[in-house]
Design goal:
The protein has about 110 residues and is mostly beta strands. The chain has 1 helix and 6 strands, in the order ββαββββ. The N and C termini lie far apart (about 40 Å). The model has no long low-confidence stretch (mean pLDDT about 95).
Length: about 110
Amino acid sequence: MQNKKICIKDLKFDKAGLIPAIIQDHRTDEVLMLGYMNKESIKRTMKDKKTCFWSRSRQEYWVKGLTSGHFQFVKSIAYDCDMDALLIKVRQVGAACHTGNRSCFYRKMK
């Protein structure tokens, strides 16, 4: 299989111009959170090496950690086979979840 690099414009965004981004610890592979990005937030993430998302509820950009200090420093960005989802490996500082938990996936289904 070929492992070619693509441009942001090649990614498949939904009707709202968003793509889901799974955030994972680069050392442990623990899934930390899921966020949504648009083309501009991907550009900002790549430039600043900190995750930047598009808030669907607030309709604005937000850099993870800007208010909490719990930054995510980007180590790598990959895309899936359909080019409609991202996997971003980060060095997480503090908690990834707004609840104070390390991961947003701290609850189990019964």
